[in-house]
Amino acid sequence: MTETEILDIFRKHAALLEGHFILSSGLHSDRYIQCALVLQHPRVAEQLCSELAAKLRDLCPVVVAAPALGGVIVSHEVARALGARALFTERQEGVMTLRRGFSLAPGEPTLVVEDVVTTGLSTRETIRAVEQAGGKVVGVGALIDRSGGKADLGLPKTALVTLNVQNYEPSECPLCKAGIPAVKPGSRSKK
Ligand SMILES: [Zn+2]
Q1: Mean pLDDT for the chain overall
Q2: CA-based, 20 to 30 A from 53: which of 23, 65, 160, 189?
Q3: How far away, in angstroms, is 188 Cα from ligand 1 center?
Q4: pLDDT band at residue 176 using 50, 70 and 90 as cut-offs
Q5: Which residues pair with 21 in a beta bridge?
Q6: Listed residue (145, 149, 79) closest to 112, CA to CA
Q7: Is the pLDDT of residue 24 over 90?
């Protein structure tokens, strides 16, 4: 599948919006990605994640890990395609960690996946959690890298689609200056 075909799937499910948005970080942006709207369709999730898995198969992971909640379905479907285990990390008192009895054998080759990489922060936290549990992170994958490929994770990194999405401080947002109303996706309120 080409990047254009994948983006068409996102647009078809209203998972890639263009306009003026307030992100959960508080920054403003002209594009908004809501992967859950694509991943709610198991067959589409399976199709996209098997595409991602094919790009990462050569790394020979036996475990796939992702940060909850956004990464859980991606982890599960990539692991299904690779015949690997699927784990997820969660925050406990602010620290990303493996809970629920999940464990890794020493040096177990592990892939870290995400739905969307924005700054790479949660990906880095998940890598650290896997390493602290004894696993060896062999690579990183995402459905969409919206950092334009700039998020540096110090590991082989693959995304189905790389987008260079601009984020703006509200005080510097050109869309605000143009008087375009900002929308907070996922809520009904408009600013
Ligand atoms: Zn704005």
Answers
A1: 93
A2: 23
A3: 17
A4: very high
A5: 29, 183
A6: 79
A7: no
Q: DSSP letters of 47-76?
A: HHHHHHHHHHGGG--SEEEEETTTTHHHHH
Candidates 67, 132, 128, 137; CA nearest to 103 is: 132
Residue 5 Cα to ligand 1 middle (Å): 29
Eight-class DSSP state of 20: E
Task: Give the architecture (CATH level 2) of 42-165.
Answer: 3-Layer(aba) Sandwich (3.40)
Q: How far is the CA of 22 from the centre of ligand 1 (A)?
A: 7
CA of 171 to the centre of ligand 1 (A): 8
Which two three-digit tokens encode residue 119?
């700054």
User: What does the pLDDT look like over 37-64, one tens digit per residue?
Assistant: 999 999 999 999 999 999 999 999 999 9
What's the CA-to-centroid distance between 176 and ligand 1, angstroms? Answer: 4
Which of 105, 73, 66, 108 has its CA nearest to residue 88? 66
**pTM here?**
0.90
Q: pLDDT tens-digit profile of 62-95?
A: 999 999 999 999 999 999 999 999 999 999 999 9
CA distance linking residue 62 with residue 83, whole number of Å: 7
Determine the Cα–Cα distance for residues 161 and 142; give it in Å rounded to an integer: 8
> Ligand 1 centroid vs 21 CA: distance in angstroms?
7
Separation of CA 32 and ligand 1 centre (Å): 13
Residue where the block lists tokens 């004894």: 134
